[in-house]
Write a structure and sequence with these properties.
The protein is elongated. α2 packs across α3 and α9 packs across α11. It is mainly beta and about 725 residues long. A six-stranded mixed sheet has the order 9-18-17-11-15-14, covered by helices on one side. A six-stranded mixed sheet has the order 20-31-28-22-23-26, with no helix packed on it. Helices cover about 15% and strands about 35% of the residues. The chain folds into five domains: about 35 residues; about 100 residues; about 180 residues, no CATH class; about 180 residues, no CATH class; about 210 residues, no CATH class. The chain has eleven helices and 44 strands. The protein starts with a helix and ends with a strand.
Length: about 725
C-alpha cells in the first residue's frame, strides 16, 4: 500500500467515524424531542400560546422560545403569519387547516392574536416564516377558543323606590370562574346610582348612598383604570386609604375595616368600583358604568331605594371577553297599603279569632289590638314570611293581656309573629326600639321615667295604666270582655298618643273586633259505627258516618255534639295540641282537656256525662276525663262554635264504674256558672296566672246556674240511654 492510498483510506475511516458519531448524537437529540413533541420537530420552531384556552375576545400571545433570525427560525418581526383553523389531526399532529386571517408580527418571538372574530369551540394555530408547517405541529401546541357564557337576571320584574319591595335578587352567572364585569344602564343611571344599587343590601351597616358618594369622589375613582394591553382592570391600593366625608368625616374604606379588594368584596358582594375620568369605552362613558371587580358569579340582593321611577335595561359586559348579558327591571313609586279581610271581626269573648291583612309594597305590619276606649291595647309585629302578599294570624282572646307567652296568645301558620308589646315585656328595661316606636304629637319618643319604657308611657297616656313604670299586665282586671276593640295596622311601626287618644303614624288600614257574650245553644247525641274514638278526627269525615240518636248500642261510638261559645281559648290553653293549643281545630284534643277545664273552679265551666242513678253507696258512674283515657277510647273534635266528644263504648275503662248496665241512663251537661253579685277577676295584678281568679278574685265563691234539658231515651240492650241537658250561664 502506498503512503498516498494509506492516507486516503485513513481519511475515509475517520469520516465514517464522524458520521457514526453524528448519527448517534442525532438519535439522542431526536429521542429527547420526541418525548415532548410527537412530530420530532425542535420546540423553538413551534409557537406556544398564552392563554392556551382563551375565551372569545381575549388576546392570545403566540411566542417562540428563541428566535434564530440568522436562520429564519421562530416568529420574526415584520413577517406575515396566517391564523389557521385546525380541521383535522393525524398521529398526534395537525394534519389539515383552513386559513382564517393574516397578521403581521410587530416584534421577534411575539404575535398578539385578537380572538374577537375567531369561532368559539375551534382549535387554531399560526403558520408562517420560521415556524413548523402542517404535519409537524403537535396537537399540544394549538390553542382552543372557548365561549364565555354570561347570564344576568333580576328575581323581580318590578321593584319600588322605597320599602321592602325596593330590594330584589340579582343573579350573575357564567361558565367562567373569576372575571370582572362592566355594568351600565344605557346612560339612564350614572355610576353613583349604579354603585348605590349594587351595594344597597350590604350587611355591614354602611348606607349605600354614602358609599356611592365616596367611591365616585374624584380622589377615589382615580385609582381605578383599565389596562388595555393586559386587558385587566387595575385598582391601586391607595384607593382604600383615600379619605372623604361621604360616609363620615375624614373616613376611608380602611377606616371601615376594608383594606383590600377581598375585604371590599366580602362587604359588598358585587364589588362595584367607579372608573377614573378618562376610562370611556365603546359601551359607556366612564361616569355611566361601574366595574364589578373579579367577582365571578354572584347571587345577592340589590336595592333600588331612591332610584327614579322608570324602566331600566342593565347591560353586563365582561371586560376581557365578548360575553354580555342584559336584564330589565321597572322601578315604580312605593305605595304601601293594606286591607283587612273584614271590616268587623266577630267572635265570642274567650274564643280564638282569626285575622287576615292583605299587604301591598311591604311584607311587614305592626298591628295594634285595642285602644283607649276598650281598656286594653297590645301591638304585634308580623312579617309576611311566605311572601304571599298577606299576613294571617290567630289570637286567643282568653289569654290576651295575661302572663301567657306570645306564642300562646298569637299564632300564624305561614307568617312570623316577631313581637308583642304586652307579652314580650319583661320589666321596665324592655327595649322596644328594634320593633316599634311610641311617640307624642311632637314626634318625640315617649321614654317614660324608666329606660326604654316607651310602651308603658304610651299606655299611661291612653289611661290604660296608672303610671309609666307600671307593668302592661296591669291593664286588665279580668279577661277580655264582650265589647268592641279597634284593630289598626301600621306601615312603619310608629304609634302616636295625643290627648289620651292613639293613632298610627302611617296607617295601612283599620277594622274592629267585636267580642260577643258567650252562649250555650244545645246538646245533641249521635251514634257512629264501632271504631276507635279518633278514627274520624276530621269533622267532615265524622259527619259522614253519624246518625242522630239517643240510643247508643254498647259497641258503637257515642258522639255528643255541644254547641257553645266562649270556652275554646281556655280549651286551647289546657290542650296538649301542637302550636300551643291552636291546633285543636285541626287535630282535635283529648278528653283530659275538658277535665282540666273542669278543675279550674274559678273559670265557671263544667262539662260531664254522668249516670242518672247511683248504684248502692257508690257515686253515679261518669265519663272519665283524665289522662288515663287514650285518644282511641275518647276524643274531642273541635269546630267553630261547637265541639264533639266521641266515646268508644266498647272500651271497659271509659266510664268510672266500667261498662254501663243495660238501659242505664246518663245526662250530658255543660254549665257556665257565675256569681250573683261579683264578676270574675284575676287574683293578682299584674296578672300572675291566666286561670288564677274567680268571682271577686276568689275561685271558691258560690255560683248560680241556669239550665235547660233535652230528654233522650234508649231501648236496646247493651246501650246507654242519655238524658242530655245543657245549662246556660245566668
Amino acid at each position: 500500500m502506498t503512503r498516498e492510498n494509506y492516507r486516503t483510506q485513513m481519511r475515509a475511516v475517520f469520516l465514517a467515524a464522524i458520521m457514526v458519531i453524528s448519527v448517534v448524537g442525532m438519535s439522542v437529540a431526536f429521542t429527547g424531542a420526541a418525548a415532548a413533541n410527537p412530530s420530532g420537530t425542535p420546540g423553538e420552531d413551534v409557537a406556544e400560546y398564552e392563554p392556551p384556552n382563551p375565551y372569545q375576545g381575549q388576546t392570545v400571545d403566540a411566542t417562540t422560545d428563541s428566535a434564530d433570525t440568522a436562520n429564519d427560525e421562530g416568529i420574526l418581526e415584520g413577517e406575515d403569519y396566517s391564523i389557521e383553523r385546525v380541521d383535522d389531526f393525524d398521529d398526534g399532529a395537525v394534519d389539515d387547516t383552513t386559513f382564517v386571517e393574516e397578521q403581521s408580527a410587530d416584534q421577534d418571538q411575539l404575535l398578539e392574536i385578537d380572538t374577537d372574530d375567531l369561532e368559539a369551540g375551534e382549535d387554531y394555530v399560526i403558520l408562517g416564516p420560521g415556524l413548523e408547517s402542517v404535519g409537524e405541529i403537535p396537537r399540544s401546541e394549538v390553542f382552543e377558543v372557548r365561549e364565555q357564557r354570561l347570564d344576568a337576571e333580576f328575581d323581580d320584574e318590578e321593584v319600588t323606590d322605597d320599602g321592602d319591595d325596593a330590594e330584589t335578587e340579582l343573579d350573575v352567572d357564567s361558565n367562567r370562574g373569576t372575571y370582572s364585569t362592566n355594568v351600565s344602564a344605557d346612560g339612564d343611571l350614572d355610576d353613583e346610582e349604579l354603585i348605590q344599587i349594587l351595594a344597597g343590601a350590604n350587611d355591614i351597616g354602611v348606607d349605600s348612598a354614602d358609599l356611592a358618594e365616596h367611591m365616585t369622589d374624584d380622589n377615589v375613582r382615580q385609582y381605578v383604570t383599565y389596562d388595555t394591553d393586559a386587558e385587566e382592570v387595575d385598582i391601586d391600593s391607595d384607593l382604600f386609604t383615600e379619605e372623604t366625608d361621604a360616609v363620615a368625616d375624614d373616613t376611608s374604606l380602611d377606616n371601615l375595616g376594608i383594606s383590600n379588594e377581598d375585604d371590599y368584596e366580602d362587604a359588598f358582594p358585587f364589588a362595584p368600583y367607579a372608573y377614573d375620568e378618562d376610562q370611556d369605552d365603546d359601551d359607556a362613558d366612564f361616569d355611566e358604568k361601574v366595574v364589578m371587580f373579579q367577582t365571578g358569579d354572584v347571587e345577592e340582593d340589590v336595592s333600588f331605594v331612591d332610584i327614579d321611577d322608570g324602566d331600566y335595561t342593565f347591560d353586563f359586559n365582561v371586560v376581557d371577553t365578548e360575553a354580555t348579558s342584559s336584564a330589565d327591571i321597572t322601578v315604580r313609586e312605593e305605595d304601601q297599603d293594606g286591607s283587612f279581610s273584614e271590616g268587623v271581626y266577630q267572635q265570642s269573648a274567650g274564643d280564638i279569632v282569626d285575622f287576615e291583612l292583605e299587604l301591598e309594597d311591604t311584607d311587614e305590619a305592626w298591628i295594634q289590638i285595642g285602644d283607649e276606649d276598650s281598656g286594653f291595647a297590645d301591638v304585634i309585629y308580623i312579617v309576611d314570611d311566605d311572601e304571599t302578599g298577606e299576613v294571617e294570624f290567630s289570637m286567643n282572646t282568653r289569654l290576651a293581656g295575661t302572663d301567657a307567652e306570645t306564642d300562646e296568645v298569637y299564632f300564624s301558620e305561614d307568617d312570623e309573629i316577631e313581637f308583642s308589646a304586652v307579652h314580650d315585656y319583661t320589666d321596665e328595661t324592655t327595649d322596644y326600639s328594634e320593633f316599634v316606636r311610641f311617640e307624642d304629637d311632637d314626634e318625640e319618643r315617649l321614654d317614660g321615667s324608666s329606660t326604654n319604657a316607651d310602651f308603658t308611657a304610651y299606655l299611661e297616656e291612653l289611661g290604660l295604666v296608672d303610671d309609666d313604670d307600671d307593668d302592661p299586665l296591669e291593664q286588665l282586671t279580668r279577661p277580655l270582655q264582650a265589647t268592641d276593640y279597634e284593630i289598626t295596622a301600621s306601615a312603619d311601626g310608629v304609634f302616636v298618643a295625643d290627648d289620651g287618644e292613639s293613632e298610627a303614624d302611617d296607617e295601612l288600614d283599620s277594622a274592629s273586633l267585636e267580642l260577643l257574650t258567650p252562649e250555650l245553644t244545645g246538646i245533641t247525641t249521635w251514634t257512629a259505627p264501632s271504631e276507635d274514638a279518633n278514627e274520624d278526627d276530621e269533622l267532615d269525615d265524622l259527619l259522614d258516618v253519624v246518625t242522630e240518636r239517643s240510643e247508643i248500642a254498647g259497641e258503637d261510638r257515642l258522639v255528643i255534639q255541644v254547641e257553645a261559645t266562649g270556652l275554646y281559648g281556655a280549651m286551647a290553653a289546657k290542650s296538649d295540641a301542637d302550636d300551643d293549643g291552636f291546633a285543636i281545630f285541626e287535630d282535635g284534643t283529648t278528653v283530659e282537656t275538658l277535665g282540666e277545664l273542669n278543675d279550674e273552679d274559678g273559670e265557671g265551666i263544667d262539662f260531664n256525662v254522668e249516670a242518672d242513678d247511683a248504684t248502692g253507696n257508690q257515686d253515679p258512674t261518669e265519663l272519665r276525663l283524665d289522662s288515663s283515657i287514650d285518644e282511641d277510647e275518647a276524643f274531642v273534635v273541635v269546630d267553630d262554635g261547637q265541639f264533639f266528644v266521641i266515646v268508644n263504648t266498647d272500651e271497659d275503662d271509659v266510664f268510672s264504674a266500667g261498662d254501663p248496665d243495660d238501659y242505664e241512663s246518663f245526662t250530658a251537661t255543660l254549665e257556665y256558672e257565675t256569681d250573683d253579685d261579683d264578676r270574675y277577676e284575676f287574683e293578682d295584678s299584674p296578672v300572675q296566672g291566666a286561670f288564677d281568679g274567680g268571682a271577686d278574685g276568689e275561685a271558691t265563691k258560690l255560683l248560680t246556674r241556669t239550665s235547660v234539658q233535652t230528654p233522650l231515651i234508649r231501648s236496646v240492650p247493651s246501650s246507654i240511654s242519655l238524658n242530655l241537658q245543657s245549662r246556660l250561664r245566668t
